[in-house]
Design a protein that fits this description.
Layout lengths: L1 H75 L26
């Protein structure tokens, strides 16, 4: 029993200098890869968040402009765009009737 323990101890003393640097190197490599993956994921997530902020801002601006347009049309009583000016009854004059010719 004692000899087996002594043999295992000698084996460990012989293997540790070989195995320990390999384990440390492997650990460092895994750590470097993990940091690289984290950095890439953070960059990806922040770029997606920035894109969604831009889209959300554009949608909100369109809604605000639409609300302002509705409020102005309700206050002024005008709906739509005024037709181009023209003679009475002419096309685009806004006055019903036949289109004058000539």
């Amino acid at each position: 029993m004692f000899l087996a323990a002594l043999g295992a101890n000698k084996l460990a003393v012989m293997l540790v200098p070989t195995v320990h640097p390999t384990v440390v190197c492997l650990g460092n490599t895994i750590g470097d890869v993990w940091v690289s993956v984290q950095t890439r994921v953070q960059t990806w997530v922040s770029s997606i968040a920035t894109g969604w902020k831009v889209v959300f801002g554009m949608v909100m601006m369109m809604l605000v402009l639409a609300a302002v347009g509705v409020a102005v049309s309700k206050l002024t009583g005008r709906h739509g765009v005024a037709p181009p000016s023209g003679a009475n009854g002419a096309a685009g004059s806004g006055v019903p009737g036949r289109m004058k010719r000539g």
